[in-house]
Amino acid sequence: MTMKVAIFGVGLIGGSLGLCLKGKPGITVVGHSHRPGSLNRMIERGVVDAATLSMEEAAADADFIFLCVPVGNLEEYLEKLYALPLKPGCIITDVGSTKASVMERARSLSASGVYFIGGHPMAGSERSGVDAASTLLFENAYYVLTPSPDVPEEAYLRLERLLAHTRAQIVRVDAVMHDRIVGAISHLPHIIAVALVNQVCDYNADNGLYRTLAAGGFRDITRIASSDPLIWRDILLSNQEVLLSLLRDWNEEIAGFIRLLEAQDGDGIKQAFEKANQFRGELPERRKGAITSLFDLHIDVPDHPGIIGQIATQLGVNQINLSNMQIIESREDVPGVLRLSFRQEAEMERAKDHLLTLGYTVYV
Ligand SMILES: NC(=O)c1ccc[n+]([C@@H]2O[C@H](COP(=O)([O-])OP(=O)(O)OC[C@H]3O[C@@H](n4cnc5c(N)ncnc54)[C@H](O)[C@@H]3O)[C@@H](O)[C@H]2O)c1
Ligand SMILES: O=C(O)C(=O)C[C@]1(C(=O)O)C=C[C@@H](O)C=C1
Fold this sequence. Notes:
By secondary structure, this protein is of the alpha/beta class. Helices cover 46% and strands 16% of the residues. InterPro entries: 6-PGluconate_DH-like_C_sf (IPR008927), ACT-like_dom_sf (IPR045865), ACT_dom (IPR002912), NAD(P)-bd_dom_sf (IPR036291), PDH_C (IPR046825), PDH_N (IPR046826), Preph/Arog_dehydrog (IPR050812), Prephen_DH (IPR003099).
């Protein structure tokens, strides 16, 4: 039996979902766009089986409908969809970065036999559009679902089964709680990144050295300032109350630093860094890649061409099965620059012994 999945808004997130679902047994993916120019691109990019400008055509007989449009357009899409004849049992879900407002609107629109389950994959990028879509975007990320209490468990489980193709971990969260949490760990950081870049720009635009010298720290903390302005306008407006309260707390945090500096309180500054180090060190590491591996080695390798090939060859010659290999771009959380992953602990131990005898520095 074939399942039809309709995706409205085939950009970064919609396109990535398409890549995860298209070609899976029994699944057909249809993409909808409001712009004629986008249809060919989504087909060329291979994220959907078919593309249409017609909402009716996309929604007809769909088993699942994903709304992947900007947050500010979700309500309008919901209203239009609920006015169409939808397949009984159809599940409508969204990927919007806020959940309370869309859940409320969906509640007011309910149609018999059609279920709305709010969704939000906690993975993304500062890039947007279908060209930025990736099969691996959701792998090992958390994917929040916010079903209202009247959604039958059967429907929830059906969506959960479909989303297994994303390889994300599904987590059920209350919509209001969701908005409070993502306000703090996603929306406020975007505001701060933008404010930081704008502060440097506003006060120093005529001194090119600021741009030249902007190194790792500035770039790390401001990557997300390059995010799509329209997408973020909608997200921030939709989470207004939560953000206003967080920004007041932020003012307090900054005022604390002003006081520490004015008082030349070195211990206080050190303590602030120690506290942040500890909390941040406890964040679970996110891993992306085709293979979920269990046993990892980190090794330091000298930076010269061919070294990675040599290590892979040395392991291969010794019949040690390597599952995955990753160069670690950001060294902040882990020692070593190369991660070697093994399915079996014994295999990892053999690799460690072998690499040690070859003189590498190895961390388990
Ligand atoms: N970017 C992220 O990191 C991220 C992560 C998780 C969730 N989200 C959420 O996913 C949704 C889509 O974001 P994205 O990053 O994929 O954005 P995107 O710009 O890459 O994609 C949005 C898509 O919606 C389409 N669209 C349809 N109607 C539109 C309209 N009236 N105005 C503008 N665009 C319209 C666009 O053509 C585009 O294909 C948003 O609700 C966002 O909050 C984003
Ligand atoms: O990695 C990024 O670039 C993101 O901004 C992703 C991010 C986040 O803040 O973590 C952004 C918005 C989403 O709704 C979910 C994830």
